[in-house]
Amino acid sequence: MAIGVKTVERPEVGASYLRATLKGMALTFKHLVRPITVSQQYPEEKYELSPRMRGTHRMAVHEDGRAKCVACGLCPTICPANCIKLIPAEDENGERYAAVYEIDEFRCIFCGYCQEVCPVEAIHLGVHYEAAEYSRERFVYDLERLCAQDHPYTQLWDPEDPASQ
Amino acid sequence: MEPLSTTAFLVSAAVKVLVIFTVWLLVVAGVTLAERKVAAWIQDRSGPNRVGPWGVLQPIADGIKNFVKEEHIPGGASRILFHLAPVMAMFPAFVVFAVIPVAAPLPTPWGLVEVIIADLPIGFLFVLALASLGVYGLTLGGWASNSKYSFLGGVRASAQMISYEVALGLSLVPIFMLAGNVTLPEMVRQQQNSLWYILPLMVGFLFFSVSYFAETNRMPFDMVEAESELVYGFHTEYSAMKFAMFMMAEYANLVTASALMATFFFGGWDIPFWTGDNISVAADGAVVGAVPAWWITLLTAASFAAKTGFFIFVFMWVRWTVPRFRYDQVMSLGWKVLIPMSVVYVAILGAAMLALDAAGIEFGVRYALSLTAINVVLMAGIVFWLDRRRIILGAAWRQVRPQQARSRG
Q1: Using one digit for the tens of pLDDT, what is the confidence trace for B26-76?
Q2: Cβ(B33)–Cβ(B58) under 8 Å?
Q3: Contact (CB<8Å) A19/B383
Q4: What residue spans define the domains of chain B?
Q5: Among A1, A3, A17, the residue to mutate for chain B (most B Cβ within 10 A)
Q6: Residue A82's CATH number
Q7: Segments forming the whole domain that contains residue A96
Q8: CA angle B12, B15, B19 (to 5 degrees)
Q9: Which residues of B touch A16 (CB under 8 A)?
Q10: B339-354: per-residue pLDDT in tens?
Q11: Does the structure's ipTM exceed the value 0.90?
Q12: Do A13 and B391 touch (CB under 8 A)?
């Protein structure tokens, strides 16, 4: 429901106070008896989020459950908030993987550069906002946790309008 | 019916205290919820609705929360006064209700019991006295907190409440003149036999309600809290149950104010257009008027509750409509407008009553109607003449006027 904003002309010097008060009370009474409410019953009703909303991260995984990350180091490099900690490693086949991959969601500014720069489309922001925790430590998401997230990936652009025009 | 024996009187007094006080406390708790609901509805929200159906158990949840919360005493606070202040605020607010008659007398096997905790012969003077005591809690709370915001709140509380007490007392002088008494049951009886005082004392009601709004520190006169200026005024530094005690005092004052408005101007427990509830007890203990019955007592209690509830609603309605006054405007309204106008009003009504008495009109409906006519004229004068010149001047008054004069000239 759109809320209309009216510009009120300031009363002149000789304006009445009593009658203006009564007029205001008539207005508030109208609102009082109006059955419309703009409240949202939060846990039951939730916002419809935009597919481009940038929320907490999610790591894409292969079918066998391994993270898609190849530990190239681009995301910690581009991250303006310096919130990604990546220690690369190499397995017996010579493939690089992230031995440690941690994102500090408190430092993150949700700019989406990591998702944009990732060459294998591994790290993503997610359409998700309910990130409350009981301790500060829990806001450093490790690789396991990033892989376990199941909210939708953020779309960095609208597929029908890629240049955002 | 026989007058009560001493034992029956003591027992009935204890029962009355217990019943009225319990009901009254529940009402005070309910009013906190009602305030939030009314605020929400006026702002197109839905208000508290999580605890119990429609949120009716919210006051209990608030109470539990306030009991288990951490209590903080600011460093440098005057400890004794800091602990004393909430009690000082709460005590007068709770005691005032004792002199308000709640319903028609109740017949019991031991005699006729008046439904009022204490029918004090000084009646309204007691109310005024205790309302004045209430200012100590606020001022002490502000002073003892060792905080400049609290202190300013306390200073404002004392200045404002003392100024408006004068207007409050003066606005009720016409009632004392009309009723010839200051006890509240007597005023109710007088209104039953003539008209509700809202008609013959319309202007008095206007003055009384405005001053009582200021006296209870409710919007638009809540200079004492003024959260945009003083954080939360005198109870900025209070937490947990002490904060809750201040809030209870505020809402208790609100309920008392509404009950007083109903009693003084809207016939108290009187049911309109029905003479079946016109029961009173003469000085010799004889019952005058209708025959008392338990259902009449219940009906009149309901009538009193309805009137009080309506005024509680009006208090909230005004709070969520009218913006706060500036501090100097509050003071100038009190000293420059309300006090002189109520003095003039007392003089006019006194003259009118003298004239009516001289004309030989008996006290009754005709007497009240003649006073009503005078009041309608005065009210029209206030609304269309005095108020048009703006009783409370805006901040731009001095700047705007010369410009206007220039543009005209």
Answers
A1: 888 889 899 988 888 888 888 888 888 888 888 889 889 988 988 888 888
A2: yes
A3: yes
A4: 6-408
A5: A17
A6: 3.30.70.3270
A7: 55-148
A8: 140
A9: 383, 387-388, 390
A10: 888 898 899 888 888 8
A11: no
A12: no
